[in-house]
Design brief:
It catalyses: tRNA(Pro) + L-proline + ATP = L-prolyl-tRNA(Pro) + AMP + diphosphate. This is proline--tRNA ligase. Helix 8 packs across helix 11. This protein folds into three domains: about 250 residues, Bira Bifunctional Protein, Domain 2 (BirA Bifunctional Protein, domain 2, 2-Layer Sandwich), CATH 3.30.930; about 100 residues, Rossmann fold (3-Layer(aba) Sandwich), CATH 3.40.50.800; about 90 residues, Translation Initiation Factor IF3 (2-Layer Sandwich), CATH 3.30.110.30. The radius of gyration is 26 Å and the shape is globular. With about 475 residues, it is an alpha+beta fold. Strand 10 and strand 11 form a beta hairpin.
Length: about 475
């Protein structure tokens, strides 16, 4: 899916399989936001230090990650320019220019691009890279209510990318003040769970920026309800990156390799010819290959992305392993015995289950089977996330729960300092045991993942204590905490 870029560390080559998945996500998401009236745009990759200064507080968190261009050829630039880590400072001066009246609202723009954040930490394919692909939407609205409605609409689309395309369950919620987007009013998020190590992972975020940026960049309109006065617009920003692919890989992958959901798989079904050997006559081989091509044609006509593995020099068993490694959802085997019985044999990548389908019903049954695989993959992942999302009322149970690869719903006061302290209290010494690296439990403390929209019962206002044993405040919400990426 990726290749390490040898020239500069922290960068990765995205291979065709990855780009197919990203392209599928892009097509699905674009079709939905276009229905909302969002238009596509493209802004330059560079921004000036002057622009950065205007939104100093917002960019402060990105400052250590900024990549600067200081030379053009052998000459120093008079004013160094930064490669965008995000595009608020690039885009919003033009929002100020384009928005003159409330009739210009809402202004809804989205761009698909790459951004650079020069991570100092160790990079990981998809999850933490110095350059990544994403979409970033930036919109402007007349009122808080209009902006808030869009924030939730976009968040639901992000949940759809995970749940409908990638078969990955997510929890929808708000970020705490500690974790929200710098300079924003509030942040909503979809949060996933990685079963292999019990970590939570941020899936995508949809932010209401409030009027913070419209005040910085002087984006105002005449108030239609109070003639002669002006009001600052309300803004949103929202983004989804190629991190989604990494989440999908970690949620579904197993010891044999990738397990791809059929809806995003580049190849949904691979046909592997079997039963052909040295004693097979050229005529029989030709007839067999013709039958296989007919099967492929029928499947493609039925909308299945299907290929045939006619590679010479490899045994069927080797090909089986190769396609399992690549995560193709369905393997179809077809040999002379299958032809005689007028069936195909198949094996599911997600479960390994094997069975046969009558040739007459292949074009009907294979698409149904692929949808079954998609729903079964989601159900398995959802069951795992549900079983490892524990509601905890006793502090002593928190660390054992984390060590058993769970995320925790705890009653929490929402205090920023309290949140920092919880992370400190749950951080333990590095694991120096002889356990293999990929099986070691993380040493980091837990942090808040989100305040779920779907709140369990059990918090009594003014009575329920915050779970932090050092905190004297009352709990306000159930908050999902966990070790995270």
């Amino acid at each position: 899916m990726v290749e390490y870029y040898q020239e500069i560390s922290g960068f990765f080559v995205l291979r065709p399989l990855t780009m197919h998945i990203w392209g599928t996500i892009r097509k699905w998401f674009t079709s939905h936001i276009e229905e909302m009236g969002v238009e596509e745009t493209s802004f330059p990759i560079f921004l000036s230090s002057k622009s950065l200064e205007k939104e100093k507080d917002h960019v402060e968190g990105f400052a250590p990650e900024l990549a600067w261009v200081t030379k053009a050829g052998d000459k120093d630039l008079e004013v160094p320019v930064a490669i965008r880590p995000t595009s608020e400072a690039v885009m919003y001066p033009y929002y100020s220019k384009w928005i003159r009246s409330h009739r210009d609202l809402p202004l809804r723009l989205n761009q698909w691009n790459s951004v650079v954040r020069w991570e100092a930490k160790q990079t990981t394919p998809f999850l933490r890279t110095r350059e990544f692909l994403w979409q970033e939407g930036h919109t402007a609205h007349l009122t808080e209510e209009m902006a808030g409605k869009e924030v939730l609409e976009i968040l639901e689309l992000y949940a759809g990318v995970y749940e409908q395309l990638l078969a990955v369950p997510v929890v929808r919620g708000h970020k705490t003040e500690n974790e929200k987007f710098a300079g924003g009013y509030y942040t909503t998020t979809v949060e996933g769970y990685i079963p292999s190590n019990g970590r939570g992972i941020q899936g995508a975020t949809s932010h209401c920026l409030g009027q913070n940026f419209s005040k910085m960049f002087d984006i105002t309109v005449e108030d239609p309800y109070n003639k002669g006065t002006h009001r600052h617009v309300w803004q949103n920003s929202w983004g989804l990156s190629t991190r989604v692919i990494g989440v999908m890989v970690m949620v579904h992958g197993d010891d044999k390799g990738l397990v791809l959901p059929p809806r995003v798989a580049k190849i949904q079904a691979i046909i592997v010819p079997v039963g052909i050997n040295k004693s097979t006559t050229p005529e029989a081989r030709k007839k067999h290959e013709s039958d296989i091509e007919d099967i492929r044609a029928n499947l493609k006509k039925a909308g299945v992305r299907c290929e045939v593995d006619f590679r010479d020099g490899y045994t069927p068993a080797w090909k089986f392993n190769d396609w399992e490694l690549k995560g193709v959802p369905l393997r179809i085997e077809f040999g002379p015995k299958d032809a005689e019985a007028q069936v195909i044999s198949y094996a599911r990548r997600d479960t390994g289950f094997k069975d046969k389908i009558a040739l007459f019903h292949v074009a009907e049954k294979v698409p149904e089977l692929l949808e079954t695989i998609q729903s079964d993959m989601y159900a398995k992942a959802e069951k795992s996330f549900t079983e490892h999302r524990l509601q905890i009322n006793e502090w002593e149970k928190v660390i054992p729960a984390l060590d058993n690869r769970n995320v925790c719903l705890i009653p929490f006061c929402l205090g920023m300092k309290c949140e920092d302290r919880i992370k400190e209290l749950t951080t333990r010494a590095e694991d120096t045991s002889d356990v293999p690296e990929n099986q070691k439990l993380p040493a980091m403390g837990m942090k808040s993942l989100c305040i779920p929209f779907d709140q369990p019962e059990g918090i009594v206002a003014g009575e329920t204590e915050c779970l932090n044993p050092e905190c004297k405040e009352k709990a306000q919400k159930w908050v999902m905490f966990g070790r995270s990426y």
